[in-house]
Amino acid sequence: MAKKRRERRETDGLSSTQEEVTASDSQALKEAQHTVGGSARMSLLILVSIFTCSASVMYLVYRNFPELQDDEMEKIKIPKDMDDAKALGTVLSKYKDTYYTQVLVAYFATYVFLQTFAIPGSIFLSILSGYLYPFPLALFLVCLCSGLGASFCYMLSYLVGRPMVYKYLSERAQKWSQQVDKHRDHLINYIIFLRITPFLPNWFINITSPVINVPLGVFFIGTFLGVAPPSFVAINAGTTLYKLTTAGEAVSWNSLAVLGVLAVLSILPVCFQKKLQKKLE
């Protein structure tokens, strides 16, 4: 009987301890969620402040733009469709030769701004560059703007985006982190491959890369080189801008085939490297 009572006391004590541990874990989880929620709100506030400052800079850029007529002012806006791009191209081409620097700076600043804050519309600016500038300059300009804008988005995420990634994109970020870990030895090729192919949205790559420890230098180079093939297609379409009615017309079956070939070429060095390593082993 004494033995049974002792076992009962031990069992009751163990149950009590388990309940305390469970309650402690639950409380810790609630505190962690509260902390993440608070951090997310603070990060959102900081992000809004940075966006406001950037928008102010954009306003100053356009204040230095040449004086436009009222009907032309209506066309100076971020293009949402091909009609907007055509109207904007008409105005910019009129002033490009006389106010070359102002137009170039405005184009550069707008493109980087859109990329930094993941705002739609950069595809139309890529097409527009083929209409405004010679092909080599247009390609370099789009690649540079894309690389810088994506890198600024990367840095924003590094500074204030982690809590929001943990809160809203945790599961997707973990899955992509596992893929990145498999390609650590050839990360530039992997970033190039992702930029060429539509497997992951660009905004998702920009925001989650600092969270899963993709180096900024690798990220910039991979983005700069990776956006070149799709930009090639968009810029080439820009030479016939006024024949296009939608952004989809800029992409033909031939251009898709070319992008597919380039995507395969970007990943071939990785395959050869793995085979060579196996042979050496």
TrEMBL record:
The chain crosses the membrane at residues 44-62, 104-125, 137-160, 187-205, 212-233, 253-272. It comes from the Eukaryota. Residues 13-27 have a biased composition (Polar residues). Pfam families: VTT_dom (PF09335). Residues 1-27 are annotated as: Disordered. Keywords: Membrane, Transmembrane, Transmembrane helix. It is a multi-pass membrane protein. Its main location: membrane. GO terms for cellular component: endoplasmic reticulum membrane. GO terms for biological process: autophagosome assembly. Residues 119-238 form the VTT domain. It is found in: Membrane. It catalyses: a 1,2-diacyl-sn-glycero-3-phosphoethanolamine(in) = a 1,2-diacyl-sn-glycero-3-phosphoethanolamine(out); a 1,2-diacyl-sn-glycero-3-phospho-L-serine(in) = a 1,2-diacyl-sn-glycero-3-phospho-L-serine(out); cholesterol(in) = cholesterol(out); a 1,2-diacyl-sn-glycero-3-phosphocholine(in) = a 1,2-diacyl-sn-glycero-3-phosphocholine(out). Coiled coil: none annotated. PANTHER family: PTHR43220, TRANSMEMBRANE PROTEIN 41B (PTHR43220:SF18). Phospholipid scramblase involved in lipid homeostasis and membrane dynamics processes. Has phospholipid scramblase activity toward cholesterol and phosphatidylserine, as well as phosphatidylethanolamine and phosphatidylcholine. Required for autophagosome formation: participates in early stages of autophagosome biogenesis at the endoplasmic reticulum (ER) membrane by reequilibrating the leaflets of the ER as lipids are extracted by ATG2 (ATG2A or ATG2B) to mediate autophagosome assembly. Belongs to the TMEM41 family. This is Transmembrane protein 41B. The lineage of its organism: Eukaryota, Metazoa, Chordata, Craniata, Vertebrata.
